[in-house]
Amino acid sequence: MQYDYDDQNIFAKILRGEIPNQTVCENDHALAFNDINPQAPVHVLVIPKGPYVSLDHFAQDASADGQVGFMQLVAEVCRLTDVAGGFRAISNTRTHGVQDVPHYHMHIIGGRQLGRMLHD
Ligand code: AMP
Predict the structure, then answer these.
(1) Is 32:39 a contact under the CB 8 Å cutoff?
(2) CA atoms within 13 A on the CB side of 75
(3) Is 71 touching ligand 1 by the criterion CB < 6 Å?
(4) What is the pLDDT of residues 85-107, one digit of tens each?
């Protein structure tokens, strides 16, 4: 499948340093920062540094090193934040998934008891 990446999206601007962010950690392949509108005590977004619009785009086209580096940063986020009691990882995708920012991101949400996964 072919994916079109818009380099004017807000996370692309964060990666270029045009917009500030509250960085949790980063490595060569990915950046993790606090969500500006947190839904729980822990709400971190993990994004690849490469131009991928969505989880399926990233899974299809990112290099093996890039995918491993991304997941290693997810592990670091889990070590650095208070998610010993558990958390939820969410990647909203396109229209049906209600994705607002068209740069792949994984939400890591935790630090409190969460509700059931879907309400509608
Ligand atoms: P999604 O609906 O999965 O695309 O989620 C996008 C997320 O990005 C939302 O949870 C927003 O609160 C978050 N967000 C938008 N702009 C920023 C920003 N400048 N810094 C941090 N998080 C942001």
Answers:
(1) no
(2) 7
(3) no
(4) 999 999 999 999 999 999 999 99
